[in-house]
Amino acid sequence: MKIAFTASRAPDAQEACAALTSRYRSVSQAEADVIVALGGDGQMLDTLRDNFERPVKVFGMNRGTVGFLMNEYSPDDLVARIEAAQQVILHPLRMEAEKADGTVTQALAINEVSLLRETAQAAKIRITIDGVVRLEELVCDGVLVATPAGSTAYNLSAHGPIIPLGAGVLALTPISAFRPRRWRGALLPHEAKIQFDVLNPGKRPISATADSTEVRDVVRVRVREDRSIPLTLLYDPQHNLEERVLKEQFAP
Questions:
Q1: Are 38 and 63 in contact (CB under 8 A)?
Q2: Residue 93 contacts residue 109 (beta carbons within 8 Å)
Q3: Which CATH superfamily is domain 3-91+230-248 in?
Q4: What top-level class would CATH report for the domain 93-225?
Q5: What is the pTM for the complete model shown?
Q6: Residues taking part in catalysis
Q7: pLDDT tens readout for residues 170-180
């Protein structure tokens, strides 16, 4: 097994990386079968983004703050843990953000694609699903589309639903919706093609963000799940991601 190590800039993560590389034989990320990511959830997302183009497995260990996507940290028996780990395969969202001049920016998101107002003016957004207008005008601070893995992140803080892995759905969640008052979002099949049209972008500018890639002053945003890109995460059997997502639904 060829293992590579990567770490965030946090002192705990850097210290752990130094200890592990001195203890276990390591290779570059380009040569690795498995990448061990040390840090928090941000480091896990960065590691996955850096390896979208190649089939690599990622085993994360928490040396950060939240660590929802990470395993517990231990320097012992690392190879045995990786060999015994359970696989979770995720697929990212692909965002196509169009500006008024026709420029289109594409980006991938593991957690969510979010649209947010840029000024004090509320956003006005038309929502189309698979070519059918489902909401003519949403007046809000913003709206987001979340994957099951990302449903416990920004989506949850916006009062969106937690989605079990493997459910085959995406969460469409408004952020501080003003009109329609009673709309709380929707669950969409994972193959849905979602389009957001910004209404009156000159007066009500909106930015679109795919995880950490932001595009400002957009006029149209298309979002779909990209099933051609599999992301493989490894988890200790007793702390697998499916169990964590399930526990979050019963958290006090």
A1: yes
A2: yes
A3: Probable inorganic polyphosphate/atp-NAD kinase; domain 1 (3.40.50.10330)
A4: mainly beta
A5: 0.88
A6: 41
A7: 999 999 999 99
